[in-house]
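Lab notebook: predicted structure, single chain.

Context: the supervisor wants predicted structures on file for every construct in the current expression panel, including those that have not yet been purified. This is the next one on the list. No modifications to the sequence; it matches the entry in the shared construct table.
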Amino acid sequence: MSRILLIISLLFVLSCAKDTPTGVFDLSEEANKYKISNDITSFKMIDNNGITDLFRLRNFYTHHNEPWENGFFEVYNIEYQSIINNYYFNFKLDADDYSSMLTLNWNNNDYVYYYFKTEEIETDKIKPNIKFYDSIMVRGKRYYDIIEIDYSKNTSSLSNKTPVKTFISGKEGLIKIVRKDGIFLERID
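Prediction complete. Output recorded below exactly as produced.
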């Protein structure tokens, strides 16, 4: 009987030990390249019809949790709201004991989760292609550390408020979107 109790106790201790996080749980160096500056409180974008829309900072927070408090350790979240088109753009970076993760959504629809360590993509509906570029030009200005979210291969189930293509620059944020109706908006400074 005592051997059984000893084995059960040992299994309990081992199972608890693997749940105890070890190491540093900060955003990876790669994920940090894509932190949008919270100093950008507003920016303008112009569409291919010449209509300008203003995007304003809606919410920003960053925090570092104690291990296992909410499942993540470092969180960086920034949200913008457009004035004319009433777009809501949410961009979030998380770090846990496994990987740094990007979460992106438009108007609380079409969530995309990208894991930097494995390059795995998860979604709530439609899976986009995700590409990374060192830089691209938009309206004569070069932007760096670019993430492209591309739904162009499957737009039938895509919400009308979710762009077919979204281009995000590390540090500067949203720089270009292509809508389902063919209208595109580009960042102007």
